[in-house]
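Entry for adenosine-5'-triphosphate complex. Fields follow.
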Amino acid sequence: MNPDQPELGEAVPLQTWLLGEIQKQIPVQQNGQQLSIIRKTTVAYAVAKLLRRAITSTPLSAAKISIDNFVVRTKKQHDNSELLPTSSMTDILGVDMISERLSLTIIEPSHVNNMLDEGEEGGTGRAIEVCISPSQLLESSSSAFEQIDEKTICHLFGVMLYQLYSNLDPTSKESLLGADPIQNNSEQLGDDYDGANEPARKKAATTTYSALHDVNTPPSIIMLVQNLVESKCDHPLNPQNICTSMKEACDDLHLLLHEPSRFMFTRKQLERVGSVQLKFRQNRLYGREKEMSLLSDAFNRVSAGGNEAFFIGGFSGSGKTRLVETVMTLVEISGGYVIKLKFDQVKGRPLLELISAFNELCSLIRKKKSPQELQIIVDQLTESVGSDLSMLGRLLPNVYSLLPRGQLKQSREQGGNRMNFQSVCFILRQFMRVVSSKSHPVMLFLDDLQWSDSTVLDVIHDILSEETDARCFFVGSYRSNEVSSEHAIFGLMKDLETSKVTTQKLILDGIKIEDVNTLISDALCAFPRTTRRLSTIIHEKTQGNPFFCLEFLRSLVDRGLLRHSLRQGSWEWDAEKIGLENTTDNVLYLLSSKMNGLTNEVQTVLKVLSCFGIKVNGNIITYLNSTSQYCDII
Ligand SMILES: Nc1ncnc2c1ncn2[C@@H]1O[C@H](COP(=O)(O)OP(=O)(O)OP(=O)(O)O)[C@@H](O)[C@H]1O
Ligand SMILES: [Mg+2]
């Protein structure tokens, strides 16, 4: 066999493949059921992709959207009598659509096995990729069959999925779900059904899809089947969610495969967990692609040579810190040194804090450099600061950890002159010039500049504006709602520009509605198409401020306006009611209303602790704990 040619595998009619799947059902405790569902979802995704391709050029008839029209290509001989507990995804190589002579090949299917081992926070699986041949379909002008529209295609595909997941014999009539199950539902519901008759609606939903419930199919899949099947009926049970395009169906199936740990929960598993919480992704940055690339480009330019400054303003909670922290991770991966300092409203010694951040840089350097490289740095430092080496040591004591023992003793013994602002700037400038390099540029992130002072900003100007071969990427963030136009930050921006330092300014607004929708669908583990209306309301109320969105979602849960239904296996909400909620002006409103819900004692403790700034020393907690007034609360 030519190694460059993909393996075609053995072709098995989809119906036969399905029978084999049903017969070799592996005991649930061996992960077998989940594996089987993922295998079926892989095939479903392949069929959906083939249908999407086919409808672009061929009139489709109902007969073509049936399991008889598809073939699964597998690696092994499909032996029905064989019970294969080790069945894996890797044996499904592709799916063909017979009538259109389309052949779909699955690329890299092996990752799906790994996804099963991932924990809830295990990140995302990799997207399954497919390649369809021939890439171009010949336009077919005439068809002997009646052409059907996309809604009907979705409906028929839904019926196919029902056959696929229900474990009913695919050759039996029962497996077809009836031509239009909703027709029956409408009768059950009565002619005046307007969607408000909740108990009758639920009853109908469970009756119709009972075969899927019986085999413990994940609620997300049942929902997809239902939304597809109902796409062409007049009274869908959930009109908001009907799925009327094959693109949406492909997206949903792709998501199921991509993130089984979030979407493939069965109802039994949910019952075992008990209460279901919102599943926020701690490490995902929603949107901000443009901002990320502006920051990365600036950093790359700095690596190539020269200093740059980047200012990020924005309302509190707009995600300034989060954005820069994401960039910091990339900078670290690419070998850069990152120093970060967050100013505090309460503790006011900004210059000392800045110096101590540079001091930390020495520790980073020591970790990344070999003894030989450290020696070179030390030699260069000695050369550039000369007799001021002891001053450098006094300013940044960690620099001693870079020096060999003999030199350390000698420099410590040297006398100490008084340090003025100029000498501090001179030393930091020389230090930056020596330690930053093409392979190790320095990124300096000063967060919450609104609480820094003009001395700090003068030091930054001095470091950046000096024409040396230093490579310093300065990023400063500030709350635009807390600074006036007279604030020293704006003076620094002007001074840098005058000194010809490349300076960019960015104001971070809210994230886009699509990104809010991704955030919400992630938190609810729901298909994005089903959360759009809710996202529109939340985006409108929060102006896309990410922190506000997160808090708003939490507050909806607290107030029972967003709740998880174990029976439905999904989150439920009343968009009308949420839409009527008071529009909250800003983050503080939400926080204060949340705080008002706390007991008076807890509020008092929070007030006391807030006097200590953004961090509270453990000793203070211990002390408060020993007092009769606070011991019961802390
Ligand atoms: N794009 C985003 N995607 C995901 N989460 C985000 C995003 N932006 C912000 N967040 C989350 O919102 C919260 C507030 O973000 P962050 O602390 O970065 O805001 P900020 O602009 O720095 O606010 P402040 O001015 O109060 O410091 C954090 O929990 C953060 O994880
Ligand atoms: Mg911040």
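NOTE: The radius of gyration is 31 Å.
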